Amino acid sequence: MANGKDVRIRVILECTSCVRKSVNKKSIGISRYITQKNRHNKPSRLELRKFCPYCYKHTIHGEIKK
């Protein structure tokens, strides 16, 4: 079995608009999703449009470091 780096890794997506609002303390919390990405097909940071329950709309969720 291969003990090296796996091709599919788990990433955390965080709402970008909630992060900006948290500086002004207008947001209740920060929306986060956990998903997987293929390291070979998408070496750059992942950004998806997901629903944010704190903003009550679809916003861009970007990959963050663990």
Automatic annotation (TrEMBL):
GO terms for molecular function: structural constituent of ribosome. GO terms for cellular component: chloroplast; ribonucleoprotein complex; ribosome. InterPro entries: Ribosomal_bL33, Ribosomal_bL33_CS, Ribosomal_bL33_sf, Ribosomal_zn-bd. Pfam families: Ribosomal_L33. One of its GO terms (biological process) is translation. Keywords: Chloroplast, Plastid, Ribonucleoprotein, Ribosomal protein. HAMAP family: Ribosomal_bL33. Belongs to the bacterial ribosomal protein bL33 family. This is Large ribosomal subunit protein bL33c. It comes from Salix interior. The lineage of its organism: Eukaryota, Viridiplantae, Streptophyta, Embryophyta, Tracheophyta. The gene is rpl33.
